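Re-run with default settings, no changes from the original entry. Doing this only to confirm the output is reproducible before filing.
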Amino acid sequence: MVTDAESKLRAEEMTAAVKKGERTRAELRALAVNMIEVQVDAQGRITIDENLRQYAGLSVGAKVVVSGAFDSVEIWEPARFERMLNAGQQAIGGDEE
């Protein structure tokens, strides 16, 4: 999840990259189709679009991991989050223990 301002900036950057030939229109479309505006309800909840839930492997009523990522918030299926986190930690620190 990103703010409206951040999503507009990403869209502008992607559009500029397409014009320069650094990205394809297919990549632009893939990014655009996954940008969905949501509203926070009175209890602080959001509704995640069904297509995004399926893509992320999230099930209705299941536990999720909400992770801060400096300039955004990410919502993960717990097992996927662990795999991603372990891969990231290994990439940063190598196999040192």
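The mean pLDDT is 88. The beta strands are 65-68, 73-76.
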